[in-house]
Amino acid sequence: MLPINMPRTNSNDNMCTLVQWLYTSGQRVREGEVLAYLETSKATEDLLSPGTGILHELAPPGEEYEPGYCIGYLLMDEDSASSGPVASSHASKPVSFVLTRNAQELVKRYNIADEQLASLGKKVLKKDDVQALITPPQSMRKQATSEHRSHNQAIVARQVTLAHQSIPAAFSMIKIYCDAALQAMAEYIEREDVIIGWPEVLIHELGKMQQDYFAFYQHLASGEAVAPQQKNNPNIGVTIDVGTGLYIPVIKGVATKSLAEIANELMELRLKALRKTLREEELSDGHLTISLHTDKDILMAIPLIFPTQTCMLSLCSEQEELYLNKDKSIGIRHYLTLGVAYDHRSINGADAVRFLQEIKRRLENLKDGGL
């Protein structure tokens, strides 16, 4: 009998959530197969089978467990399965239902236990009855999504509390006129057939700035600045919320990636956030973070600084305004606001303004050939 223990996937977590078992007790699994999904404070992780054998589950999903806690066993052969804890936990009961032929096929395909079938409370089970066990009703899926968001929000709450308690933050904001950049982006999309927006462009430009604005890319350990491992090739995080909770995935080594590579990678990260399959390594080692507030009419947002980083940028939505041309005629131009919340222990206000002014210069002078 081989124990299945809750692993320590994140050194900062004392608990880990067992989200879902992918097999049921009594099923045979092979070594290295994914047994269950776990959720840490940062990501969803796979729990791999430590060996080959018959699964016996001890811990119900949806609960938190400490690293090292035994959540199940693998029984090494069929004999032990028939006499061990699996048999005792699934004591045989009289079969009080019959299955149609189509229902039998589903039961066999998905290895549905008699107890699950009996729980439906029907004497004759049809294909649709069995299908209901495989595909939960929409209301149950909505509840699961809501529960996931609640759990994810609790993780966000811990980070927010830590940021408020430990980081003396200040904030500056700048206005960026962007008609020329919008034209350059439209030409790039048509030429390269790659969809880009302000997040991709900003990440691309930030990748070129670390050498001259090093303080904004540092890490802080116990309040002391620590040099990034990838000097002049930073890792940039970006907030993503596609309805499954707030995540901050990190694009690594942006200085050596093209705009198209950044755009494709960011799209993959959005899809993973939607499917809740982001991994620990995709959410760690960021040097600075962009907080997106691009919904219509958002003019300003003051972000919190991600703990261990020295700043966070806030990118807001495009706006229109009227202005007077040199000949006194009235024109329309587009602009956006970009803010930076910065750790005042490492960065002073004048440095923050220069940082924003450099980003403004870069974005306002974008030409199609520079993308």
Automatic annotation (TrEMBL):
Keyword terms, alphabetized: Acyltransferase, Lipoyl, Pyruvate, Transferase
Keyword flag Signal: no
Domain Lipoyl-binding: from-to ranges: 18-70
E.C. number(s) listed in UniProt: 2.3.1.-
Record's GO cellular component terms: cytoplasm
Cofactors (names): (R)-lipoate
Domain 2-oxoacid dehydrogenase acyltransferase catalytic residues, every copy: 146-367
Sample GO molecular function, one term: lipoic acid binding
Stated family: Belongs to the 2-oxoacid dehydrogenase family.
Protein name per UniProt: Dihydrolipoamide acetyltransferase component of pyruvate dehydrogenase complex
Organism annotation: Dictyobacter aurantiacus
